[in-house]
Amino acid sequence: MVRRTVIRKNRYFDSVFLMRVARRLASQPGMSDASAVLATAANRKVLIGIGYGEAGRDPDFAAAGPNDLVIALEGEEAAVDAIAANADSYLSQAAETSSGAGGSSPRPRSINEAMERRPDCSLAVISVPGEYAVREARTALQKGLHVFLFSSNVSVDDERSLKTEARQRGLIVMGPDCGTAFLGGAGIGFANAVRRGPVGIVGSAGTGMQEFASLVHQAGSGISNAIGTGSRDLSDAIGGISTLMGIDALEADPATKVIAVVSKPPGTGFTATLGERLGRCAKPVVLCLLGAEPDSLRIHNPEGSRGQPTPRWAFTLDEAVASALEVAGVNEPAFLRSDERVMRERAAIEIGKMRPEQHYLRGLFAGGTFCYQAQAMFLRSGLLVHSNEPLPGMPKLPDPHESRESSFVDMGAEIFVQGRPHPMIDASLRRKRLEREGEDPTVAVILLDFILGAISSPDPVGDLLGAIRNVQDKARRRGGHLCVVASVCGTDEDEQGLESQKAALTEAGVLVFPSGAQAASFCREAALMLTHRKETADVGLA
Amino acid sequence: MSVLLEDLFQKAPVFLNVGVPVFGDSLREAGYEVVYVDWSPPAGGDARIADLLDDLL
With contacts defined as CB-CB under 8 Å, which chain B residues touch A132? Predict the structure, then answer.
């Protein structure tokens, strides 16, 4: 078995294209693994961590930069040599069959050129690497286009400047780092197949909006429109420019009967503005500010002002869905009701099968909102977990690549997606991380989220199932039991199939919950028991 | 062409996809009109030179 890297200087390919190339290379006879990524510092670190680049001493590898392509090959020497000698032909073959190729005429090379041909375009969906995103977004705004900006790695100053310019032009910038939106029935970005209905959403929490929309659909209701804003929109620096535009638009939208605001808590300076705006909203508002305690935001709602109730607060996405459904006149579905006593009983059974040294939880999240929500629920119960994206009050992981005690890792954070597809598309980093967590004999519980919908992997559960079985087997061979907990975000109309994805997990012995909040709730009960068990054992030793 | 946000609620927009094609593909497969920009980094990937060119042109 050998490992080798091939560098191609100044070769740009998009990250999804490269993922497909890597899968094709890895499936060749004699190959065991392959990666094709832009040589960002983060990607080089990951590759060095799994044994490539001679720990950084390979001069070509060390000199490669973010504009260079690195193909990393692992397998039998003859297979690796054969691919390394023909790397360019694999790239060109893949380019010929890619979804972006073909068509009757050459595609426009720029936004300006495209708008000359099709001036009726009205929304630009931008997913270029972050360092080019501002330039493309600004061009789009100047051409009169609304912008859905998936790209991350955009500075706060640039974000404020883009949004200010957009507002002056009567346009909206959804993003940066915007994962999802629903406009006029179209699901943009990572969007689940949901029916249309009376519930409008505006929010900074991409996977939170997906979960909210999916649960509303599962309950038999639907979504009117949903505006993504980017994760920093409610910060003081941005001042909620896109959120406020989204609330205005949903308030005026005849199809929207109730507006859900799903975000991280606002900056202290912006709180009063948000409260004032929600207080005079002519439609009922459900407010889910993940991590914020209900009623922590003062809503300015002069008595008698339009006779509207103050916003309904929700601590979790499940509570927000139940509240929105109530306003919409839909009965709360049974799957949103969780019973803590039943959770405790199930947790006790799981822990009863574990070895005494199994103490810790590891959450490996594809969805940032699920990571954040789980932290909020743990913090409320006085439980601390390390995280690369810590909620205020939670300890920060010094190295996002290394878990420590109980850790919740947002695998969609910037460090993990530079020059790589998001983990909802490409599970390879999460799979490797899961295998590594399974080596640690102190781990008791693994918490995972699976996110279905457009653009996501065609089989998110299948991508990790082999690794799940491996880590369960390893724990069993050590004489213990690894409890794997999961939730699946999606609907029966998503191509991946909600029920079949859940069934595959259940068959593998994974505890599957109807929502991220309920999976986190189970883990919280397990963590409380594990903490108590460890403290009791420590006292016994002393 | 400037369109009010509320107008996008009534009728799905014509999308301009700039970057990873899968974003446009999912919309096109759902029946929406998508125009693709065949994007690559400007100025051979040197953002500083691209900015200088922007200022000059």
Answer: 41-42, 47, 50
Specify the amino acid at residue A149: L
Give the tens place of pLDDT for each residue, B5-20: 888 888 878 999 999 9
| Amino acid, res. A270 | F
> What average pLDDT does this structure show over A391-407?
95
The closest CB to that of B18, out of A67, A98, A124, belongs to: A124
Q: What is the pLDDT of residues A55-85, one digit of tens each?
A: 778 888 888 888 889 999 999 999 999 999 9
The number of angstroms, rounded, from the C-alpha of A345 to the middle of its chain's C-alpha atoms is 30
User: Considering only CB atoms, which chain A residues are within 8 Å of B9?
Assistant: 183-184, 224-225, 249, 253, 255
Range A476-489 average pLDDT? 98
**Beta carbons of B50 and A145 less than 8 angstroms apart:** no
Instruction: Check CB contact of B41 with chain A, cutoff 8 Å.
Output: yes
Q: Which two tokens stand for residue A336?
A: 């949103």
Radius of gyration of chain B (CA): 16
Beta strands in A235-330 (DSSP E): 258-263, 285-289, 312-313
Q: Which of A381, A402, A426 is nearest to A526 (CA)?
A: A381
Contact B19 A128 (CB under 8 A): yes
